[in-house]
Each structure stands twice: as C-alpha cells, then as structure tokens.
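tool_log.txt
---
The assistant was asked to compare two proteins side by side. It first ran the structure predictor on the initial sequence, then on the second. Raw inputs and outputs are pasted verbatim so the downstream comparison step can read them without reformatting.
(1)
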Amino acid sequence: MEQTNDEVLISFQYPVTFNPSCVEYELNERKNSIIVKIPDRVPLVCGLLYDEVSDIKAHYLDGTYVISLKKINQNDWATVVKSVHQNNQAIDPKSAFILYQILASHPNQEEFASIRLSMLFSSSQAGYVPAMQVYGGLLLDTEGKQSDGFSVIKSAADYYEDPVSCFQVGLLYYSAKKFEAAIDYLQRSGDSGFKPAYFSLGQIFSPESSLKFNNKDASRAMEYFMKVDEAAEIPLVYEEMAKLYATGQGVEKDIEKATQLREKANMMKSQQNTIENPNNSIDPSIGPAPEEPLTIPESKEEGPSMRKWVFAGVLAFAGLIGVAVYKNTKKK
C-alpha cells in the first residue's frame, strides 16, 4: 500500500500470460467496504476499509495492476482493510493475517485472543503461506497438536513450493529421524533459493558435525557448505568448513585454509553481534539439532481449501476488530 494525503494506492504484479481486464473491483453503497477479485478465485482484497472513500479507479501497465482509492479525510491509513466487509462479512486472506499481526501487538491482546486466532486460522485455511507458517508453528508448540502443525506447514511446502516451509518440513523430518525425507525437503528448499537449507544439509553429512546420521559423507558435506554464499550470513558454515580442512576430510588437508575460515567466521559473528543483534551471539540460522522424535502422520494430507475465505467465526466481533485496529495504530 502507498498513500498520499488524497489517495491510497493498492498494487500487485501479474505475469504476461494474465489478462488484467478480468479483474473486478467495487465499493459497497456506503463506500466503506471494498472487494477486488478474479472470478471464481479468492479475493485479492476484501473487507471494511480503514476509512470511507469517495471513489475507486483502476489502471494497469507493464505487469502492474493499481487500484486507486480517493480519500475523504486526509488522514494516514495504517492498513487498507480493518475488518470484514460490511455486506458479505468476508475478508481476504492477506488482510486477515495483517489484522492478526496488529491484534497480536495490541496492549490488551488477551481481550482479542479469540478474534486474533480466528483471523490467523482463516487466513491459513485459505492458503496464505505466511499465515500457514505462523499457524503451523503455534500448533507445533501446542501439546497434542504437533501432527496438525506439521500438516499445515507441509501443505505450504507441497502445494505452494514455499522454500522456507520446505526448510521447516526438512528439519521436522530430521527430528523424527526420517532422514531421507529430511534431505529431500532441505534439498528442495536450497534449490529454491533458501541457502540455510544447504548449511543444514552440510551439517547432516559432515562427519565433524554433532548431528546424527549413519551415512556421513565429508565430500558431499563440503559441496553443500560451498553452496552457501556470504549473503546468507551464516558464520557457522565457515567453522564447519574449517573443521573439514583441518582434518582433511572431503578435501585436502590445509591448516592455513582452516585458520582463514575460522577467522572469517569470527569476523562475521563480531559484525552481527555489534550491528545487527548485540544481545544475542547465537546465529539464528543454525541447522537442525537432535530432538525427541516427532510423530508425523503417514497419510497424505489434503491441501488448504481455497474457498474458505468467509470467516463465520469472527462475524460477531467485526465491530470490535475495527476499534482495536484503529486504537492500536493510533498509539504508534
């Protein structure tokens, strides 16, 4: 979302094979609710607007579709949608997740716990990947719900080929001691551009790593470590490579090279601690660690329903959501 004193702009990219003329958009009669959709698909935007508007227009050019909303009041909008649509009582998945995030940071977040979780659940059910990751993570941390959490994250990995979700699934399979599946998902994650997955694969195969795996292979471990570029900012990868150079496993023994790699790792750690995270010396991208085996369902899970975007569970709270969002964003 972009905005000026007079208008709010909502834009999205589309591929060259997409026909932008099929996009439908409209305001309700009171001009306080919006729906932007492609026929027979989950709406791109749907819900009660942050404030009333006087007009809506759209244009598209060079792969970008832009919706323009004319403001009545020249105030800043914290978000496009602040609650469910006043007419159809629905909200799009992305807006639902944004509202979940806003309500999660509300000073009285416990008061809105049921609304917040309903928004998260509905967004996840509609297949919005960031919501699926958060909802799946919450279930994984809930006793008796771990299998459900795994299924949610696995759906994000399998149906949407999300690299971070593939990484999470890989780690979960590793913790369940299902090493073949773990390696498969971590490989998919790394090949899709999520470099920490290559680091975890290197750890699994490295004979110098503490991770349990029967088929250690130093050469393969080094190949994976080499695939992690500096942009991933994982100093531990250089420490793991240094161990292999120091012992001559998978590569020719080279003490000088090992020393250089350790120095590089220490320099990266120092920079991260000083600039990015002065209160935490632990790299957040550390790969999997042995845990108690996780029970993972064997049956094939169905994907998220792309039709579940009407949030019956939150309809009674529609007014409260808008008030909570307005008050919370005004304080910032």
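(2)
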Amino acid sequence: MSQPPEGTAPGPDEIDRGLREIIAGVGGDAAVREPSAAERSRRPAQPVQAKRLGWRNARKARRLRRPVPEPGHRPRRGGTGRSPAAGRWQPAPQRRSRRSQRAWTITKRLTALVLFLGLLYGLHLLGFGPH
C-alpha cells in the first residue's frame, strides 16, 4: 500500500485497495514469521544460560532461599550466622492490646506535633516567621 504525503489521511479508495491486498494475500511475505508448533517441536531444546545476578537480585534470591518460619515463631535477628543458635526460631513476643497500640500511636503523633510547633516557635524567634 503506498503511503500518502505526511499530514494527509489516505482516501477511502486507498484504504479499500490496501484491505483487498491484505485479504487476497498479495501483500507479500510477512516481516516476522513465527514457526509452527510442529517446527518448534522438531528443534532441540536450547539450554538456558545462567546470567550473573546484580547485588539486589542476589540479595532477593538469598532471602527467598531462607526457610519459612512456622506460624507463631519468628527468626532471631543479629549475629553473623556462625553461632550454633543463629538459625533457631524463637516464639514471637506477645502482641499489644488494641488499646495500648492506639495510645502509642496517639503519643507518637502528639510528639511530632509538639516538635513541629517548637520548630515553628524557634524559627519565629529567629525572625523567619510572619512579621
């Protein structure tokens, strides 16, 4: 199908002619030809080459190789992994009640608010606030 000049749309006759070529198969060979399933099965399998992992992917792979902890237990943290107790599991600590979690959240937010207001007051004393 011939291409019209840049910026102009092809006319309806050009579109119809292009569609007729496609339907009739006159357009020529396809640019990309994929082999059929039978052709693919005749070819020998190609071995997968292991490529070198970056440090992030190597770290992820190392994490994924670790054993999954049992429910209610979690792995100990710290150590170099050379001590005999490095891979042992310890029971999870008792969870806080919902009330104490909420109190802790409110305390953290109030602390942040007080620190922010103190910063504003200090900046005002230094002359950086509204005049």
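---
observation on (2): Helices lie at 12-24, 37-42, 55-65, 98-125. The mean pLDDT is 80.
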